[in-house]
Amino acid sequence: MGYLTDAKAYLKTGNALSQCDVDLFSPVYFLLCHGIELSLKAFILASGGSERELKKQDIRHHLDALRNRAHLLGYQPAHEKTDAVIDRLPPHHSNHSFRYRDPGYKSFPLIADTIEVLASMLDEISPVVWRKVRAAISQP
After folding, report:
1. What's the rounded Cα separation, in Å, for the pair 126 and 7?
2. Is the pTM of this model over 0.70?
3. How far apart are CA 107 and CA 138, in angstroms?
4. How far does CA 122 lie from the centroid of its chain?
5. C-alpha to C-alpha distance for 107 and 111, rounded to whole angstroms
6. Under a CB-based contact definition with an 8 Å cutoff, are residues 115 and 14 in contact?
7. What is the Cα–Cα distance from 82 to 5, expressed in whole angstroms?
8. pLDDT at position 136, please?
9. How far apart are CA 12 and CA 4, in angstroms?
10. Assign residue 49 a region: left if phi > 0, alpha if psi is -120 to 50, beta otherwise?
11. Which of 73, 74, 84, 135 matches a 20 to 30 Å C-alpha distance to 127?
């Protein structure tokens, strides 16, 4: 549940910062990427994955690996841009270039598209997580 709650906070904050007149490009992408990471982790945990699995180096901060694992567990994103957005973010997110500037030309999805994708993911993943939470609470 914590991953989902935090992912929603990262989306809200990234969206608010994206509306500022100041260029906050890297912080906004950092927040949105981390929100995507956490939402995928929430889905994986609610769908049979484990915390131990999510701590492994080959999946931990790798958005494409997390997305692929979520797909194997049944996640089918409704937003048509989800895969395209996620495909362009992993090298920058996993090497922390949104936190520690990595000079040179880079290609990113539009911030607006990334916000839409994360919002859509949260709309889809929240019910899955809530079902898992309710099932755990109702067990004797």
Report:
1. 10
2. yes
3. 47
4. 9
5. 12
6. yes
7. 20
8. 82
9. 12
10. beta
11. 84
Question: Are the CB atoms for 83 and 67 separated by under 8 Å?
Answer: yes
> Both tokens of residue 58?
């080959």
Tokens of residue 119, six digits:
């919002």
Rounded CA gap, 5 and 2, in Å? 5
Report which residue type is found at 56.
Answer: K
Rg (CA), the chain: 15
Which DSSP string do the residues of the chain spell out, in sequence order? -HHHHHHHHHHHHHHHHHTSSS--HHHHHHHHHHHHHHHHHHHHHHTT--HHHHTSTTTTT-HHHHHHHHHHTT----STTHHHHHHHSHHHHHTTTTTTT--S------HHHHHHHHHHHHHHHHHHHHHHHHHHHH--
Tokens of 33: 């990427």
Average pLDDT, the chain: 91
